[in-house]
Predict the 3D structure of the following.
Amino acid sequence: MPAPSALPSNPNKIVIVQEQPDLKEFVARLPAALQGYRELILANLVMIGEIPAPTFQEQARIDFLQQRFTESGLQNVCSDEVGNGAAVLPGSEGSRHILVSAHADTPFPATIEHTLSLYPERVIGPGIADNSLGLSIIASLPMLLDFLDIRLRSNLILMGASRSLGRGDLAGLRFFLNNSSVPITAGLSVEGVQLGRLNYASLASLDAEITCRTADVQGASRSGAVLILNQVIHRLCELVGPDDLVLGSVEGGTAFKTPARNAVLRIELRQDSNDKLSALVRSIDAIVEDISTRTGAQLRFEIIARSSAGGLDPLHPLVENARSIITDLGVEPCQDCHSTAASCFNDQGIPGLVIGITEGHQLNQPDEEISIEPVFRGIAQLIGMLMAIDGGCCDGY
Amino acid sequence: MTDIDSWLRTNTFHHSQFWDLKRLVEEKEKQGLLLSLCIPTLNEEKTIGKELVLFKSELMDRYPLLDEIAVIDSGSTDRTLEVAAAFGADVYRSADILADLGSRRGKGENLWKAIYQLKGDIIVYVDADIKNIHPRFAYGLIAPLIYRPEIEYVKAFYDRPLATSKGTRPLGGGRVTEILVRPLFSLFFPELSALVQPLSGEYAVRRGLLERLPFPIGYGVETSHLIDTYSELGLEAIAQTDLDSRVHRNQPTRDLGRMAFGILRAFFSRLRMHGNVPDLPELTPMLRQFQTRDDQYEQVLFEIREEERPPMIDVPAYREKRGLMD
């Protein structure tokens, strides 16, 4: 299927898909065309998904990705000191550089079985949605563009990002954007799910652990670490509203009869400004200090990952184009515009989006599941957004 | 007798030796070979889709090594056939192939009928229940046949230790291999004991040999193949490839007992056929296993007959299809 030969130039440097009938029609035909490459897409998904990749141990997945890049004839296949794997699909002009990345890590340890089950309509297995699918799209994209006869004018930088989740704190993507030797025109971060997500901003947020140790502490050891963390939880809930606090997990103890000596509480905090988040951190520090003093337990508040507030304007042409492309493909754009990954682009002043490829269920469970049919619309939106950026929609922003 | 140590050096491979699929395809095309993949199935809906997607994408579309991928089914009652067809395999019911010759129950029946149905000069058989399927399961077995014309039969084995030292460590097959087949081979066919996993369900064979092999249709097919190939061509015609690891269903011990019984029957028939032990008595097909019900002990009888299909080359319909002269 031939691509539109040249996107219309835009004197106002704002290219809206509705104003490009060629592109609009082209993207509408993409899902059907992509169906023909189902095996290629699914094979990459299976082979990537069955390589364990807990955060900080993504090397084997990155090696596979780079092998795919090499087979596809990409240039500058490389890795960096934080373990990202990247390559360049040169454009016909190369005046712009578009980054498409997906995080390579999953929340599952290497010790669990990573075999996937594939059915005609769905794929099941740990990490399949977050983010084996996203990474497999990065691996498949060069061949798909080639088969579809799509030639971009811009250089396309494809990257598997390391160290994204939890303590990784998006280190891979941040490192690349901090150290890129070329100016990035725009970035797209690809997540497996959910199709329709359109994240262009981030709240000020942080992930943190509050650990409690009562070992060998008289008094504290009798009440136990879990009970002490319960006091912390009560105080946090008085301090922060339910929309701004996620009580993610509590772990502690080893037995039925013995009070827990150690426990850990994992939380996420969100605020709409960096200053408010900093003030909140100071308040939590004070709470932790207070409870520690009163109980005699050792309490520690540790920030694991942090993102700053900011992002694109909802009327930014990249957002407008993306919303239009998603809608034209029959998908309802998700109302929540926030993602921590968007902050990586925002911190560098680069227009960037986080998008999802398909529908999924049981997220972050061993029986995580994705639907196959929506994948083709998910890839179509990605290609449509690339073509919009290639047409100049981010120029001057 | 072949020097086993020498054979282990020259005819035992690791799949990573054949990573260069582009070169492998070039060599295959230079020789003008047709390659067929056969996946015998019986209720494999959970794993068959993944196998087909990987083999088709990697070894047909990306690297055109395979010329056909066929699923030959023994009568699945789950969605195996539907899933296989959805992912583009040529799907056959075993009973529909050479229907005039009737239908037998057993994996060996599917393997035998594949010789008639498929077109390849080399047929690679891969079981359908492999959870960690990877293209190496096919190309690792095909490659020795392409690069080494004197090799006729390549068997898979699986050996990926989690930790290694410079010392020695035992290589081993499954329970039935180590307590039955390898001791039997050591007694009667010592050279065959060098095969690490003689019972593995993955192997690649040249048609010229395959069509001359009789086929037990049950548990004894792999053991019989090795004995027959060895007796006719010697160990030099056999090779084995390490495919790293294979994740599959584990069978309960009672099922392994039935497997061992079937293998023993096939093994003794080979001893008689090749004159190793010509005066064997007639062997019962009845296996006795035991269980308790309430306070009573009782025996459970299983009839396990190792029926055997003749060499395909002796089947008139095959000779006609392949244009072979009488």
Summary: The two ends of chain A are 31 Å apart (CA to CA). The interface with chain B takes residues 39-40, 42-44, 46-47, 50, 71, 113, 115-120 of chain A (CB under 8 Å). Chain A has eleven helices and 17 strands. Confidence is low (pLDDT under 50) at residues 5-19 of chain A.
